[in-house]
Amino acid sequence: MEKHFKRTTVTSALPYANGPVHIGHLAGVYVPADIYVRYLRLKGEDVLFIGGSDEHGVPITIRAKKEGVTPQDIVDRYHGIIKKSFKEFGISFDVYGRTTSKTHHEVASDFFKKLYDKGEFIERNSEQYYDEEAQQFLADRYITGECPICHSQGAYGDQCESCGSSLNATDLINPKSAISGSVPVMRKTKHWYLPLDKHEAWLRKWILEGHKEWRPNVYGQCKSWLDMGLQPRAVSRDLNWGIPVPVEGAEGKVLYVWFDAPIGYISNTKELLPDSWEKWWKDEDTRLIHFIGKDNIVFHCIVFPAMLKAEGSYILPDNVPSNEFLNLEGDKISTSRNWAVWLHEYLEDFPGKQDVLRYVLTANAPETKDNDFTWKDFQARNNNELVAVFGNFVNRALVLTGKYFDGLVPAITELTDYDKETIKEFANVKQEVERLLNIFKFRDAQKEAMNLARIGNKYLADTEPWKVAKTDMSRVATIMHISMQLVANLAIAFEPFLPFSSQRLREMINMEDFKWSDLGRIDLLADGHKLNKPSLLFEKIEDEEVEKQVQKLLDTKKENEQANYKAPEIRENIEFDDFLKMDIRVGTVLSCEKVPKANKLLQFVIDDGLEKRTIVSGIAKFYKPNELVGKQVCFVANLAPRKLKGIVSEGMILSAEDADGALSVIVSDRKVNPGSEVK
Predict the structure, then answer these.
(1) Helices in 439-516 by DSSP H: which ranges?
(2) What's the confidence (pLDDT) of residue 565?
(3) What CA–CA distance (Å, rounded) separates 297 from 217?
(4) What's the pLDDT band for 57 if we cut at 50, 70, 90?
(5) CATH class as words, domain 122-194
């Protein structure tokens, strides 16, 4: 029998305060969490939504070092930016705290001390890279070198950003300190470890037997970790930024960020409710839900529960609805490569369109597998669904009611069988939306909510009140009454998904009080209820707006390729006499045209100083034929002729290949006689 809880604590993963937030964050964690919380509030349930910034850890210190400021400067700046972005997108936290707060330092320190005093940690000496020049131990991210997998330079001690492989610092080829550039040495250091192996038996039973309802991706990753066997995990590290380990002999050591960050959920609750926070974390009648991305599954399903169980007084999570990753235009979102759609930039380019992004991210939610965001799909979903389905129905219903009944909701006269079928159909939508929200299927729930608008459009199209108005206004009154009840239902159904649009819609229909239990009713707006003046709920997004966004990404990709460009290795030496065999000359392009049925080929006629010669070159992707006419290009004159697409090519035009594969023809920077030799 399913337990009924009195209240729900909802947490969302704490974003690192070393940069702004992007659409991957929204899609993976914050929009689904907000949808769920808004739904529970509409139902009148007792719910607390906890968020905050994760302000410790190596990424913060790296950013600070790069900018020549303190870590506190970094987290102060980005905590504000992140908090503002979430507010602007309607992420309705009850509290959005931070892990540099005094309360958090106290709660995290007390948590560690309680486990320490209970003997829940083990101490170990291990060898770790040490920078003798900087005189400090190096965190994984402070060590760079050659990736052993793809052999890219600049891989970090925990991950190669070129190929995405997870690494250990000791895997790197030719490791160097990112602080001083010197070669690090191995040195012994002491740390405290949480022995996860001690907790493996109960975790296996609790997850694999007790939580088979968890999403397959979450359950599967937990099972994989448990089947491999859990190992002790360090809870401290050598660093000067973070919460000091609160025991003697731990100078220069702080709590590992993975240990202190989830405690931030607890400390942020305490910051908000200093006198009653415990009931949200320790009462068996409280349900705990963690919304996270897939990179945090192990921490929230295995590590944090082990910490809570070891402490002894906390409840354990009831569900951890984790999403997979959202890609961008077919490529993995990367903050370091600036391959992202940043929320603050989105609002600059699409002011007032928060709900469009919320809608598209939910429609494409990576709930069980990675998904892709494209600007073309963004445009199509806005224009074909929000504008053509949702907005179209709302506008028609309001305009027609204004036209025929002066903006007053008319009374029903008599219901036909078709009216009754329509009413039953949209009453059934509530049950299905609710079922899907209860099992965290937000993508399907939003799709089902949109069916209300589809039902409305079909109802108006089938009943044709603009025609019936010529003969039977009492019938039109019934049609418009039902249509306006459908509009009111849409305002409720979409409140969790599109809060800004829902509010605007409620203002248009003059609807103040509403709750989830009202969904499906046909008496939400009383007979004679006064409607306000309608306006368009959504606007079309034009091709130019989308093309601008695509171009911005293409420019970013080109900048990245150029920044990371590594010239090909120099080929083995040749003898001078071999070089002398090549006859490289300058020729003037007399004509140039595309080769039929060959996308890559251009046919040149060149004045080589002696005669005219034909050369076929594979540069059609990079030049229009008329761009090169009159130019003086370098070409190999004594290359043996060869046939390309039936044309005899008498030489090779020389080009340089850029990082992105683009070819640039080698030209003379000042005019010379055709046939001049290149020496």
Answers:
(1) 442-463, 465-468, 473-493, 499-509
(2) 61
(3) 9
(4) confident
(5) mainly beta
Phi, psi of 144 (to 5 degrees): -125, 160
Architecture in CATH of 576-665: Beta Barrel (2.40)
Pairing of strands 647-649, 136-137: unpaired
236 Cβ neighbours under 8 A, 6+ residues apart: 191, 192, 245, 250, 253, 254, 255, 256, 259
Q: Which of 558, 498, 240, 179 is nearest to 353 (CA)?
A: 498
- List the chain domain ranges: 7-115+256-326, 122-194, 374-566, 576-665
Written as six digits, the tokens of 397 are 């219903």
Residue 4: the pLDDT is 85
Which residues neighbour 177 within 8 Å (Cβ) at sequence distance 6 or greater? Answer: 129, 131, 133, 134, 138, 142, 143, 183, 184
The CATH fold of domain 374-566: Isoleucyl-tRNA Synthetase; Domain 1 (1.10.730)
7-115+256-326 classified as CATH 3.40.50.620: yes
Structure tokens, 232: 């002790």
| Lookup: tokens for 563 | 């920044």
Fill in the DSSP letter of residue 7. E
DSSP 214: S
Query: Above pLDDT 70, what percent of the chain?
Result: 98
- 491 and 394 Cβ atoms separated by less than 8 Å: no
pLDDT at 538 over 80: yes
Residue 654 structure tokens: 């020389």
Please, where are the H alpha helices in 274-416? 279-282, 297-298, 304-311, 343-349, 354-363, 375-381, 392-405
370 phi/psi in degrees, rounded to 5:
-60, 145
- The C-alpha atoms of residue 257 and residue 264 are separated, in whole angstroms, by 10
pTM of the model: 0.84
The DSSP code for 406 is T
3-state secondary structure of 113: helix
Q: Which two tokens stand for residue 44?
A: 């009148």
Task: Answer for the pair 376, 383: CB distance below 8 angstroms, yes or no.
Answer: no
Distance, in Å, from the CA atom of 366 to the CA atom of 377, rounded to the nearest integer, reads: 15
Instruction: Give the pLDDT score at 525.
Output: 96
Closest listed residue to residue 386, CA positions, set 471, 555, 504, 473: 504
Closest CA to 333 of 557, 509, 168, 132: 557
Helix (H, G, I), strand (E, B) or coil at 89: coil
CA neighbor of 110 nearest in space, from 239, 238, 248, 246: 246
In this predicted structure, what is the pLDDT of residue 611? 92
Q: Give 384: exposed, middle or buried? Use CB within 10 Å, 0-12, 13-18, 19+.
A: exposed
Q: What mean pLDDT do residues 522-543 have?
A: 95
Q: How many Å apart are CA 134 and CA 253, to the nearest integer? A: 16
The HSE-up count of residue 642 (CA atoms within 13 Å, CB side) is 9
Cβ contact 264:14 at 8 Å: yes
CB 74 within 8 A of CB 58: no
CB atoms near residue 505 (< 10 Å): 24
Q: Yes or no: say if 423 and 455 are a contact pair by the CB < 8 Å rule.
A: no
- Residue 262's alpha-carbon distances to 49, 290, 329, in angstroms, are 14, 10, 32
The pLDDT of residue 128: 87
Question: Can you tell me the distance from the alpha carbon of 146 to that of 160, in angstroms, rounded to the nearest whole number?
Answer: 9
Question: Cα–Cα distance between 95 and 266 in angstroms, integer?
Answer: 11
* Between residues 410 and 162, the one the model is more confident about: 410
Q: CA–CA separation, 170 vs 125, rounded Å?
A: 17
3-class SS of residue 142 = helix
Would strands 136-137 and 122-131 be described as parallel, antiparallel, or unpaired? antiparallel
- DSSP strands (E only) in 514-561: none
Residue 528 in contact with residue 480, Cβ under 8 Å? no
